[in-house]
Every structure is written in C-alpha cells, then in structure tokens.
Amino acid sequence: MSGRNVNFYNGSTGAHLGGVRQNGSMTTANFFDMLMNVLLDVEATISIHLRGTSVLILINSNRLAEGDYDIFCPQGESLFLGVRNQANLLGEIKLTQDTCVRRVYSRDRSAREDSFRDSVRARDGKCVLTGVVNRSASLDNWAGFEAFHIYPLGQQELWNLNSFSRFITRPGRNPVNSVQNGLLLAANVHQLFDGLAVSVNPDDGYKITDFSVNNWDVDGRILDIVCRDPNKPDRVADELLRWHFRQCVLANMKGDGEPIFEHDFPPGTGHDK
Prior knowledge:
Radius of gyration: 20 Å
Mean pLDDT: 88
Distance between the termini: 31 Å
Low-confidence stretches: 76-85, 262-273
Helix content: 10-25%
C-alpha cells in the first residue's frame, strides 16, 4: 500500500508482514497493541526490534519512528533474541486470518434513517473529528455535515450474527439505526472514516488515528466529548468505535493492505446528509 513509512517483518524468516502510515500520533505502545491484539497470531508476547539489529523497541508513549522493524516471538524467558540462528528458541508468527468488513450500501432510504440523522445532528452539532461547529444549525442548514453509521447498515446480517445490539443501551425498533451507532462528520472526513482511512481508539483516550496521506489534519486529535459524554444516555457506543478501529487496522496494516475505497456514492446509499 502506497504511503506507508513503517514496515514490519517476521524476524525469523524475513517475510514481510505488513506496514502502516505514521502521521505522527502513533506510539510504540499503539504499534505493539495493534500487532498483538489485531494483526498477529502468536502464542507468546512479541518483541520488536529495529530491522537487522538487536535494538529492542521499548513499549511506551514515545512516538514510533519511521522505518523497518523485525518482530520476534520469544519462547520461555528469551525476550531479547535478535539473531536468526536461534530460531529454535523462537515461536511461530502468523498473520491473523481475519479480514476487514467491507461496507455494503443499502439503496432504500427509510424514515428510520431520517430519525437517525436527526438524532445524530441534535446530539453532536459539529464534526466530532475536526471540531468544526455547524454555525447554521439553527437554520436547519447541514450542508457539508453528514451523519455516519459506524457499523454499516448494509451489514445487518453480520450485526445480528454478532449480537451487536447488546452494545446499544437506547435501542429503537432497529438498533443499527440508534444514535449510539452514529457520528456527525464533515463530508470530507466522512469519506476518510467510511473508507477505513481514519478511526478512533476508545482504548487510548479516544485518540484519532489517520492511516492515510490526506489534507485534513485529524491525526492525533481527540474525539469531541459532545458525542461520548459518559453522563449522556445517547453517547456513542465504545464497542462500535472499537470494532471500527479494528477494521481500519486490518485494512491498512495487514500484508499489502486493502485497496483504497471509492467515495463516489450514488443517491440513497445510507450516506445521510
């Protein structure tokens, strides 16, 4: 995938495992968590080294440096093995078989979607990623702002299969259209979020990670409190944000990455304006 400035490899075999675009906000701890909890199938805790060296990367809040990294899976007490001739002491490293869920668009606009759009607008009133406020909201002018389903409408069957309704504490007749599955975004940022180029990590203080090269400068910002106020019953569901973040990691970091999604959406595809 073009634009990557970090790549990572199996330290034992040299096989390329994946990569990512570092736009500035990704820490070594973020990198480690994405490898351990999303991308890799390993039986022990990994260690990360500068490629071709024994320099161990410390897992902390320091910025992940651009470059190439070797991933090792030490067995037993051997946590600092950076040489391939000790492969008998290293565990196997495999990429997960999981793939990202592609968005499938519904062509039928419904009154429930209008209700979803209006509820998201009323709760947020601004793009919750950029912080840009809709100053013409009192005139009911929402040009440039779009209500976005975090979990896509077109994947209702998977929603039901995974019992995602359990994450909605204020369900209506169709929980996937709950305001808790929505965010208000500027149209340009909506495209990035929809295309799995940008996401929010609720396990890292709601930090926004931009996995792409673009012009909108949202990387490292914090998701606006207006949509996630813990004292509000209509707050966005953390579990759905977590699901979306996982899809972004799979799409952008695993192997060669997924193709960039197109954003020329036809009318009536669930992109509520």
